[in-house]
Amino acid sequence: MPGRWGRGPAKWWHGEFRGCGYRITIPRQIILQVLDESKEHLSAEDIYLKVHNIYPAIGLTTVYRTLDLLINMGLIFKFDFGDGRARYELSRGPKEPSHHHHLICTNCGRIIDYTDFVDEELELLKKTEKKLSKKYSFEIKNHTIQFYGLCEKCSTSKE
Question: What is the number of other CB atoms lying within 10 angstroms of the CB of residue 5?
Answer without folding.
Answer: 18
